[in-house]
Write a structure and sequence with these properties.
Blueprint: E1 9-13, H1 18-29, E2 33-38, H2 41-53, E3 57-62, H3 68-82, E4 87-90, H4 105-133, E5 137-142, H5 155-178, E6 182-189, H6 196-200, H7 214-221, H8 230-241, E7 252-255
Parallel strand pairs: 1-2, 1-4, 2-3, 4-5, 5-6, 6-7
Length: 262
């Protein structure tokens, strides 16, 4: 056990798998109480059990990030149980790939609701509890390399992640003006081994084509020549969540093996 976020209360959305799970486990290992939210109940319970087995503290709450009433309920439970919130990792997200000509308005709105509305609602409802503690806090919004540059067949996804990027900067300035001690930053993963690739490439359903070979893709596209792992992103989130980054707000932390600058 470390102690870089010792005694802090962290809320991680989409924390049952992928990058969210990596963030929850890493923050808990460094001393935070991890409140994990997701709609994957069985996987959420697995993460809580794994963190407990490793000596950390965690709990799970079912949570649809597109539902404002659900956000109000989650924040109310965090306040009632722990009295404070120090870290918010707005990680929950989905990816819907395909040509913009084929994308339905329903899919566009669903992706926007999770990836952008969910971040807005999290920030809106978390800030008052963070301010109430009087100790500031850290909000980390998960964007993407797709929020920095366009990608064919990912127009809808790019739109949401680009929105997260600038939304983050605007809220960072609002909190800075309020002198509330809350820092707001975005993280931009590149090619990371997570389940989202199955939905982006339409291989999540039975009978679909084989999932993408991320090793082969990374060898060709990523300057460092390899894919990233959830832990690579979690390490960056940990730094932004800790007091080590006390002078960092409105920033975008790109963790992509050099993909975005090639």
């Amino acid at each position: 056990m470390g102690g870089r976020v010792q005694g802090k209360v962290a809320l991680i959305t989409g924390g049952a798998s992928g990058i969210g799970r990596g963030c929850a486990e890493t923050l808990a290992a460094e001393g935070a109480l991890a409140v994990i939210t997701d709609v994957q109940d069985a996987k959420g319970a697995e993460v809580v059990a794994a963190i407990g087995k490793a000596g950390g503290k965690a709990e799970y709450l079912r949570h649809d990030v597109t539902d404002e009433a659900a956000w109000e309920g989650v924040i109310a439970q965090v306040k009632a149980r722990h009295g404070r919130l120090d870290i918010l990792v707005n990680n929950a997200g989905i990816g819907i790939g395909g040509s913009i000509l084929d994308m339905t308005l329903a899919d566009w709105r669903r992706q926007t609701a999770v990836n952008l509305d969910g971040v807005f609602l999290g920030v809106k409802h978390a800030i008052p509890l963070m301010r109430a503690s009087g100790d500031g806090g850290s909000i980390v919004n998960m964007s993407s390399v797709a929020g920095l540059k366009g990608a064919p067949t990912l127009a809808g996804y790019c739109a949401t992640k680009g929105g997260v990027r600038l939304f983050t900067k605007a809220v960072a300035m609002e909190c800075a003006n309020a002198k509330d001690g809350i820092r707001v930053n975005s993280v931009h993963p590149g090619i990371i081994e997570t389940p989202i690739w199955l939905s982006i490439t339409n291989t999540a359903s039975p009978g679909a084509n084989a999932p993408p070979d991320l090793d082969a893709i990374s060898a060709m596209a990523v300057p460092l020549g390899m894919k990233g792992l959830p832990q690579d992103i979690a390490n960056g989130v940990l730094w932004l969540a800790s007091d080590e980054s006390r002078y960092v707000t409105g920033a975008e932390l790109v963790i992509d093996g050099g993909l975005s600058v090639r």
